[in-house]
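Input:
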Amino acid sequence: MNTKTLLGALLLAALVPGAARAGNVGLGVYGGGSFPIVQEDNGNGSVFGVRVPVNLAPLITLEPYWAKTNGGDKTQDAFGVSYTRSGIDNDNFGANVLFTFGTGLRYFPYAGIGSNHMTRDGMDERKTGYDFGMGLGFKLPLANLSGDVRAGVNMVVSPASTESSRKWGEITVGVAYGIYKLPVP
Amino acid sequence: MKSMRWILPGLALAALLGNGCILVSGQIFAKFQLPNPFLISSANAFQREFVDLTTVKEYSDNADKLKGLSDIAVVGKFKNLSGPAVSVQIWITPGNTNLADVNAIKAGASLLWGPGSIGAATAEHDIGWNESAKLFNAVGKNVLIDQVLHGGKFTLYFLGNASNELEVDDGAVLLTIDAGK
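Output:
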């Protein structure tokens, strides 16, 4: 299955049930830690971003996002001398589909696809990425406000090979505000 | 509807696993030590160094899983022992070669790196990982990637200038290789 097929499947999954019942549109911000997975030239960093959850069906939410990851420096020893490599910064945007279980305290596996622009000294690459993970959502004691905690993986096709990837584990906390309620037909 | 919520993430994961199994891969740091120190003599204005990555544990451990080369740097403390300010270049050939002079190098090798600048004697320039990574030339880098993926043996030619005597301390080649199943 290629990238376009995957994106199409995810969009179809979100939109087809949406035809049956309308929902809400929100705006959220989030931030947290970013942890390279088996990347020996890239250090721990931070991630923050914006999400627009569009709840088109009772159980499924389509969520376009933009995110910025600031990679931390990585130091390696080579024959008694320490060398430091600047971390990889990653500007990315895409869309996730959330599959929500529960009411009140909700949990939701999610998966998505995005475009990633990775930069550091000697690197300026745009590559497709995939992300997936699990989230825990809850209402906040303010009208139209909700929060969530997520643990996931962002996996970007490596600039060096289409058969490998750079992966980051991400733990984030976010809040979202319901800004528009779509009319129910 | 409930089963769809599990089926679709499953499909997404299957797509990822089917895409060359990029899930099981990583970026492995490897290093190759150059002679310490070595000279780029004014007598012939270059120094040849053969690199055999099969002697590097991180490389040989992943030799059957190599997918690409993510990052590369040639680092070291470059000292200008005598002469005016100078630029250093590194040229590369596949395998173990022994080109006779600068003209033969420029005709038979590919520009890999540089120029890196060093001030007039007795200036020193500590070239680190970040600075070095920016100085690679696409043509030579492609030769290097090809050699890393196919055997790991290549020859580097450090070019200086006939007016200069240069010394390189703590010289090393730093590699980040992509390895996967």
